[in-house]
Specification:
- It comes from Anaeramoeba flamelloides.
- The chain has about 300 residues and is α/β, with parallel strands linked by helices.
- It is about 30% helix and about 15% strand.
- The strands form 3 sheets. Strands 1-5-6-10-12-11 form a 6-stranded mixed β-sheet. A 5-stranded mixed β-sheet has the order 4-3-2-13-14, covered by helices on one side. Strands 7-9-8 form a 3-stranded mixed β-sheet.
- A hairpin with a 5-residue loop joins strand 13 and strand 14.
- The longest helix has 16 residues.
- Bound molecules: manganese (II) ion.
- The site of manganese (II) ion has 7 residues, from loops.
């Protein structure tokens, strides 16, 4: 498999043949499975939130913020579903990971999970493009190897969702068996599903039906116990692309799907951290609808 050829193909929005797709996913999984649950990263680094199959907007991120190869990136998960180009989006990032293993960190989001992909778009996309749903099985196998978090310079934690009553220390994340489907409850689930809430002090059941809401009190305790200055997470639609919670700049949501679902009014954001961890947020608008070419999508197979 020639990774440059694959990257060029994907960038041109060409559909990968099943053989190439399978090889790419296997190679990616091989690489990801050797990473720890929490990947250690040193700055400078850029952090990107949910991209949800919005491939044109993902390419725009690299255009406005610099390519992998010149720059290190952490992606917070939710690569698939909602948008039209889930396979392209995930495969492109995975191909970059294979080409530049030390410059790309890909975390698992709650959408990288079979039941969610059966309902919110990925399965339908596979049925439209390929003659059977084997690619879904291969994708899920690769999702099951994605790491759960990253720590930047020993002081900033990146996760998809949030903290958990069951997780007191970062070491509690290290002990999770992540090579499986996202369970319905527990530490693993909370990391991928939880949200901050100004309305609660401690923990409360989440209206999402998985994970929990966590309040300022438990969040501050978690930061202190783990010597952290900031938690960066995504998972939540935010109109401005980013949002600080709890009236301070210690819990940050980054959402990177502008015009979410091609219908919302939000902008996307990414965070750049320089060598000394100075933060700069970059906000961007979606690629206009008329520039999104759908002609490569094959006809529905009868
Ligand atoms: Mn999510």
């Amino acid at each position: 498999m020639n990774i440059d050829n694959i990257l060029n193909k994907l960038k041109k929005k060409e559909t990968l043949e099943t053989n190439d797709l399978k090889l790419l996913l296997e190679k990616g999984a091989e690489l990801l499975k050797d990473e720890p649950n929490i990947v250690q990263v040193t700055s400078p680094v850029a952090v990107v939130g949910d991209v949800h199959g919005q491939f044109y907007d993902l390419l725009k991120i690299f255009e406005i913020n610099g390519d992998v190869g010149d720059k290190k990136y952490i992606f917070l998960g939710d690569y698939v579903n909602r948008g039209t180009f889930s396979i392209l989006t995930f495969c492109y990032l995975l191909a970059l990971k294979i080409k530049f293993p030390d410059q790309v960190v890909m975390l698992r989001g709650n959408h990288e999970c079979r039941p969610i992909c059966e309902v919110y778009g990925l399965q339908t996309e596979i049925e439209r493009i390929y003659s059977n749903t084997d690619p879904l099985d291969w994708l899920i196998e690769t999702f099951n190897t994605l790491p759960l978090g990253a720590v930047i310079n020993n002081s900033i934690l990146c996760i998809h969702g949030g903290i958990s009553e069951l997780i007191k220390t970062i070491n509690d994340i290290e002990t999770i068996d992540r090579f499986q489907e996202v369970p319905k409850t527990g530490k693993f689930t909370d990391l991928l599903w939880s949200d901050p809430s100004e309305e609660v002090e401690m923990y409360k059941e989440s209206p999402r039906g998985a994970g929990s809401l966590f309040g300022k009190k438990v969040f501050d305790e978690f930061l202190e116990k783990n010597n952290l200055t900031l938690v960066i997470r995504s998972h939540m639609y935010v109109e401005e692309g980013y949002k600080y919670h709890f009236g301070e700049e210690k819990c940050l949501t980054i959402f990177s799907s502008p015009k979410y679902c091609y219908s919302c009014t939000n902008v996307g954001a990414i965070l750049n951290l320089d060598q000394d961890l100075n933060r700069s947020l970059k906000v961007f608008e979606a690629v206009p609808d008329e520039e999104r070419n759908l002609s490569f999508v094959k006809e529905v197979k009868k």
